[in-house]
Design brief:
- This protein has 1087 residues and is of the alpha+beta class.
- It contains 20 helices and 55 strands.
- The strands form 20 sheets. Strands 42, 45, 46, 47, 49, 50, 51, 53 and 54 form a nine-stranded antiparallel beta sheet that branches. Strands 3, 4, 5, 7 and 11 form a five-stranded antiparallel beta sheet that branches.
- A hairpin with a 3-residue loop joins strand 36 and strand 37 (470-473).
Amino acid sequence: MYKSGKNWVVAPIVFLGLTAGLGYQANVKADNVSSSAGSNSENTQQSKASSLSSQNSVSLKSSSASTQAQSVSKEETVNFAVQPQSTTKTTTSSSKASSSASSSSQVAANAATANEKDNLAVTDQQNNQTAQDQTQSNPDQQKDQNATSSSKKDDAVKADTTTSSSNSASSSSSSVQSQKVEQAQEHDDAVQINQNGQWFLQNKETHQNYTGFQYIKDQNKTVYYNPTDGAMVYGQQKINNQWYYFDKITGAMKLGYYWIAEQQKEVYYDPNKGNMVYGQQKIDGKWQYFDGVTGAQAKNQYVWIANQNKEVYYDGLGNMVYGQQNIKGKWQWFDPVTGAQAKNQYVWIGNQNKEVYYDGLGNMVYGQQYLNGHWQWFDPVTGAQAKNQFVDIKDQNKTVYYDDLGNMVYGWQTINNGNYYFNTVTGALEMYRGNELPASLDSSSINEVDGYLTWDGWFRPTQYHQDGKTWVNSGVTDWRPILMYAWPSKDVEIQYIQYFTNHGYSDSSLGLTSDAVKSLSDSTPDQIVNNYAENMRDSIEKQIYKDNYSTTQLANTMKDFMATIPDFSLASELPVEDQPGYHPDNSGSIDNDQIIFVNNDSNNQKVGNTSYADSNYRLMNHTITNEGGYTNVNDTSPELLLGIDVDNSNPVVQAENLNWEYFLLHYSTIMGQGDDGNFDGFRVDAADNIDADVLLQLGQLMNDMYHTKDSNANADSHLVYDESYHSNSAQLLNEHGNPQLYMDSGLYWTLNNVLGTQPGSRNNIMNIASNSVVNRTNDTTENQATPNWSFVNNHDQQKNIINQIIIDDHPGVTDIMAAGYKAEYADEAWKQFYEDEAQTVKKYTQYNVPAKYAILLTNKDTVPEVYYGDLYNETDPYMQSKGMYYNAITTMLQARKKYVSGGQSMTKYNDNLMASVRYGKNIMNADQTNNDLISRTSGIAVIVGNNPSMDQQTITVSMGKEHANQKYVNLIGTTASGLSYNNGETLTTDANGDLHITVKGYANPYVSGYLSVWVPDGAAADQNVTTEASTAQNTSGKTYQSNAALDSHVIFEDFSLFQPHQSVGDDTYTTIAKNAQQFANLGITDF
């Protein structure tokens, strides 16, 4: 592989502004100034009731804040006040009604009182008191904070009424020494004059007053002189819609933290400008919060930050807390990075080696809890969740067991090699059945042939049910047939029960009569059949006990029974494709022929000794999807997919893998052809069928060679991506720092099931947004999604279609994918493929390939892969003839490079119609705007439908406020016969940035439903919205991070399994090199 070139919407509070002030108003052409007494600066309270529900709990939040309105005239106004004559304490209060949870985590919300009307959020823009733009990025690198402060657990949070030397300042001191601020002027020709008890700053010569912000150097203070009369101002002043504070005696501007006693609040004044700050601020390396209306600092207080969808807590010093905290006697957890409080969430606390759960109020739970449909247990003292553990619940007088997921188990369970039965309703332990597993896993307890079990073999169980009454430990002579305990199929198990019942082992007390067992069939529930088999073991044990422990009769009966089962004859050892009932699989492989390596340390060299290759750390089937602790236990994969696979669990093989990887990364250098031709990354095929250590070792090799963990630039220059169709692999990659890109097979299958399959059987179209490793309903994050790659088609899927055509053309030929396969069958299948692809109604090929690529190539948080066979005909010489989708795909590739950037949202209009929007360069959501021209000329809308019979309708697509009143051109449109490109159709968004598009269903060879793509008019011909990877030090510990730079990659799968062999000079890579500029123009970066 080488490179081609190096919100949740917050309901606003309705606020009626009132102008309040003492003194007078005058029309001036100077700064807009207002001063405030404690009683009228910020004292109007409004609130609005709302409620917020989260899973099993309901929490009510309220926040009332005092504020002062201002009147607006046509000209600038000056509002000021005399020194305060009296003050009124203004309290900012917020409360959140607590909820109580039963042991089943059912929560009911308490009603708010009439005096505590609840509101969902308070915005920073109410009453024209807009907070200054934050100069520091917040913990999640988001802007425009909207927040609600709230209390916790039924305790209302109020502003502190007591102050300490560490947390507050007197009215004459602030936390930052007085200094010159940015906007202050300094005059060497000025002199301070006191007239009638007021201070003025005048020019020595002209005696003209200097007004506005002035720096008095010899007193090292910044003051403000009223533009109206030139007099120095004192106390709290509103100037140009910003609040400032000037010492009541000296007039010096206060900077940093300052306690305003008459309003009982501590605020913070920007040390560089002197204005009061609001919202989330990073001060001295600590995140702190100041009320969006009053500027009061949050201390010992919860705050809901709406646009980051998180609740955080600020301690007594006003700093955001992280990790485990004990607040008002309750243990709570706050994310170590973002500070977000854990609610309805499991958290692993590593340094205490325990997993705990925090309920809807964020409190650690204890005892028995009903969570997500399962009963679970948390230690009454530590809160640690019980996993793989028996627990005595004394108040219910029962012993239960919690599995490795922490869920209470029911029915029969095998635990530590013992068999236990738990009540299927209460989970209470009711029965124990002996350990019937082998006493040892070697030839002293198991018959084997060259290390393999056979169905006619015997073994010694650890325990047996003597006389069908008592569990006893077995002796060295107590061997039993394997077929007493296990069978190759349910059908054989039933035949075993029936045969033994009719041949000397009937027992009416156990229900083993001819009439009772003759009705057993494949439709009989498995548990009933297994119960009969268990009772048959008791009947056999009774006979053995009666025969003085002799097993001769048992051996003869078992031998006779096996003779009646064809599966136990030599014919059963034939290849899978020759066995009765086999149907060929279009994958072309036969997974049932898989072999398993067996470790053997026999001292008998005739048997064999492979201990030199064994170790305590060698685990068979240790694949990326089979490692312990994964939630989807059914999503597994074998290590040896085919019989020809090598044993990647062998340390010797792993070492050789590293040798080959190193060789390929230095291939051109080693071969004496210079350094330019070295491979710089890998595509790991069938990654879910090799030992997981191989993948981790490859990641370590790449980091050792290229320092891929040091920066995004290093990592993105050396892509390694896995082909793994199992979702569990994402978990391993995330846990190990993403050493490779995860293959988002979920998106591939979703695109097929939503768009590619036959009309009438297509899934809900919005599955495209959610059935993926990334939820793109509203995707606005950077560096958070699992780094991944995705695709519409590849060599395997194309091969499966061709194989299916071959299978259908040769019915009844069971070995058509093995010995019966002929190359000319594929030639005929390809003719049918091309014919089918060109039809409106298809039998084999995929529908809506252009629409699938339109979605894939505009998706955020993924590296798309384009398949060679979708651009070119696979059976012609390399890149000689274009495929029918060439124009659609290359148009989207060029659009991706030119327009696709910013945040993404997907909107559903009905089950068959959706729109995917990218907002443009540096624009992450619909409400954001930017002064950068490229933000306005970038962005894209893709409208996709999957119903060819869809009625005509007009939909509204939100392109975002950045694109208000902007012309859009139709890049790709659907016609009756196919697709149109740049057809001249234009639409203009309204003042809200909404585009109104008329759509309807179509049926043609290219589209079965609807497709249109819209881009902004006016972009420069060479506009490029891709992003260079950062060279800054990467401190995340991850190799790859999903961000705009990684998204700027496009992979080209440059081969087909069916491309004809070419002579040197016309081969694949030489042809690619000849067309390098073409690929660069398409934005393709990796091959």
